[in-house]
Amino acid sequence: MKRKTKEAIAGYLFALPIIITILTFTIYPIFAAFYYSFTDYNPLNARNLETKFNPQEALEFHLGVFQTDVSSVDEIIDFFDLLSFIKYDVGVNLDETKEKIILENFDTQKLLKDFVHGKLNKEMKLSDFMSEYLKSGKKYFKRYIPNFLGLLNFKKMFNDQYFRISLFNTFFYTVIVVPVQTFLALILAVAANSKIKGVKFFKLTFFIPSITSSAAISMIFWMIYSKPGILNRLLGYFGFQPIAWLENPNTALPAIMVMNIWTTAGYFMITFLAGLQDIPSSIYEAARIDGATPNKIFWKIILPLLRPQILFVATMGTIGCMQVFDQIYFLIKNMRNITISFYIYKNAFEYGNMGYASALSLVLFAIILSLTLIQRKLVKETY
Amino acid sequence: MKKVFLVVLTVLMVSLSFSVTTITISGWPGNPDEEAAIKAAVDEFNATHKDIQVDWEPIPGNYLETLKTRISAGTAPDIFYVDVYFFEELAGKNILLPLDLFIKKDNFNLNAYFEPLVNAFKYNERVYGIAKDFSTLAFFFNKEIFDKYGVPYPTSEDTWFDLLDKALQLKRKGFETPLVLAADFNRVIPFILGTGGSLVDENLNTALDTPASRFGIKFYVDMVTKYKVAVEPQEVGAGWIGEALGKEKVAMAMTGPWTIGFLKGSYPDVFKKIGVVEMPSLIRKVTMVYTVSWSINRNTPHKNEAWEVLKFLVTRGQEIFVERAGVLASRKDIAAKDTDPIKVPFYKGAEYAYPWKVPTPTGIFSIANDQINSRLKDLFYGKITLDEALKQIKDNYFDWVSGK
Fold first, then answer.
1. What is the DSSP string of B286-337?
2. What is the DSSP letter of A244?
3. pLDDT tens track for A238-269
4. Nearest-CA residue of chain B relative to A51?
5. C or N terminus of chain B, fewer CB within 10 Å?
6. What ipTM goes with this model?
7. Domain B138-288+361-401 belongs to what topology?
8. Which residues from A are below 8 Å from B398, CB to CB?
């Protein structure tokens, strides 16, 4: 073997743990989500065919007689209802196609004969039981395979009121939050970069919200926004009527926006601060000698030179806003104000529509991807 | 050779006699009293059974979501809580083990339990769980506030209009927020059924738009929007109804026995001023019953052992529960021993209570519940009219309950 190949093998061996981790926890789920978005996958069906049961007991219960009291198939066949037996006593989850397969192919005679001869008193898996007594169509009962729906999940979105509402809310949220938080972060960074007293204290104060857990922040803002809360008390001095900010469907989303801007602005400030410190001081000096006002310096020098950072902040901000979840999850109790990622969560884990949730997340992925591409087209990278 | 055989045999015997089956039971963690009660029950079971050991592993946070995920991964506990609200969904998907065979073999007496609670966990005429306890809604009021404003106390015989009258009196005399209500569909159900209305028709389609049901919903919403005598708990800075009572921001509330434990623990001074009567009625006396069963995972490898544990949990286990956690007993003989006067309105309620589940063709109601709640909220804030809301519900109902 060549030295180079040997080296490559050794290299891959060293990298193997992380490669396997990424394959199983990142690459595979992405493809799985893609596949599930075309199906009606329901997690509650996943283990169904692996359940074990005792066919004799199930039949005894179904027929209402003990095996020992039966001597021939004719005695019991009239009391046997195939579909109800399979569905409730054996416990196989059936849809219409599977019901048809069973009605056409199930070997009732064989089952009842085995019952009469006492061959059924043993624990067995549902999948084994089905393949034993089905004449054909066994493959449908080997393991859980969700039905392939084609584009049905995507078609359904067009008529789904909450898909529209949540998508609109997400866009509304992003359109407001991203520009405001980017601009605010920039202002904060410029302020933190200046040589005023106590600048370290301000930097710290601005940054702390972004490293605090969103659950804790949500709780604090829940108190601020509540009807007897501090915000209403402050506004009361100016003669405003108190509002339950988070309960009122008109104010809930803007209230969350304000909170999120406050939380993330400090984080992006750090990015801008790094960019600002990269700008050589000679440029400022030259500008000042030419007589530029601080205002002009900001617009004509700082802003253009921070373009890569602005692109980065805007992109990351957009992705973060499109995926906003935890604040909505903690604070919003109203379906009118949900965002798309919260709706995905609801469908996947509460409604059991894993397939539809996968389709929704695919759409969200497509939206974020195209938004990012558009942003990169609009703001050319210059480094 | 014989010696070797003997040694092997003894080793086998010894290891067999020491083989212990562990049964994992799970639910949501309760308040400290409930946790202590369940631990006491588990300890007692473990002390009296050598071959079966029970392990209590509560699931904190989103119970149903976590449980569903664990079911699909095949790692669900052997026995777990099933709320009647999502019972049909799990039973319909063959997640739960039917208990009929065990009940027959052991001559287990189901008649010892309150009938509505037994029926609550039946699906296709099979029993999929036994009620661990139950809660009904009753009417709480703060005596001190009523005394202060000179308004007569609510009674168990009050009609809805007595309730409204007393609330209006309080409001006129200067108490701005007499009643607390939640924009929760299940809290509206007593009002829908109390007029003789119904939730679904014979085809399992929604019946909320029938005149009687509509009247009940209208009364509930009107208390908030038209008469302005009721507020949501958040309006007075409380997280939920019990907290609004505890902070003495409201004079009246309709809530369950869990509020008693909460008030005792967090607002002991307020608790002394609280009176509890039965729910007000109109044509029919109705309240809600919320109940939770112990059910066995159909996938458990230890079905017989799990049944032994379940049997203990709903008999002696329940006794410990009722004594220590202050819950209401689903077993009649244990309920008869329970003489706490404050629990009387709740036990009375069990006679005419409606279990919190809405029958649907698929057993799935969660989507419809979210949708209806969202419209209730809109109604509370005057965003839509009642007729618009009912029309939207009627038009979309079948989609919501189809579970697709």
1. -EEEEEEEEEEBTT-S-HHHHHHHHHHHHTHHHHHHHHHH-PBPSBHHHHHH
2. -
3. 888 888 888 888 889 999 999 999 988 889 99
4. B299
5. N
6. 0.80
7. D-Maltodextrin-Binding Protein; domain 2 (3.40.190)
8. none
3-state SS class at B83: strand
Find the CB nearest B74 among A47, A61, A248.
Answer: A47
Domain formed by B19-135+289-355, architecture? 3-Layer(aba) Sandwich (3.40)
Identify which of B319, B262, B361, B401 has the alpha carbon closest to the alpha carbon of residue B133: B319
Find which of A81, A149, A155, A335 to mutate to test the B interface (most B CBs within 10 Å of its CB).
A335
Question: Which residues does chain B have within 8 Å of residue A353's beta carbon, measured at their own beta carbons?
Answer: 403-404
pLDDT in tens, B11-29: 655 555 557 889 999 999 8
Task: Give the CATH H-level superfamily of domain A154-378.
Answer: MetI-like (1.10.3720.10)
- Cβ of B71 within 8 Å of Cβ of A47? The answer is yes
In this complex, do B234 and A226 lie within 8 Å of one another by their Cβ atoms? yes
Could you state, in order of their start, the residue ranges of all structural domains in chain A? 3-36, 48-141, 154-378
Cβ atoms of residues B252 and B154 within 8 Å: yes
Give the pLDDT confidence of A91-147 residue by residue, as tens digits: 888 888 888 888 888 888 888 888 888 888 888 888 899 888 888 888 888 888 888
Alpha carbon of B222: minimum distance to chain A alpha carbons (Å): 18
Contact A56/B at CB under 8 A: no
User: pTM score, two decimals?
Assistant: 0.83
The domain ranges of chain B are: 19-135+289-355, 138-288+361-401
What is the sign, positive or negative, of the torsion defined by CA atoms of A188, A190, A191, A197? Answer: positive
Total Cβ atoms within 10 A of residue A148: 11
Helix (H) or strand (E) holding B54: strand B52-56
Rounded to the nearest angstrom, the minimum Cα separation between B343 and chain A is: 31
Note the maximum CA span of chain B.
Answer: 98
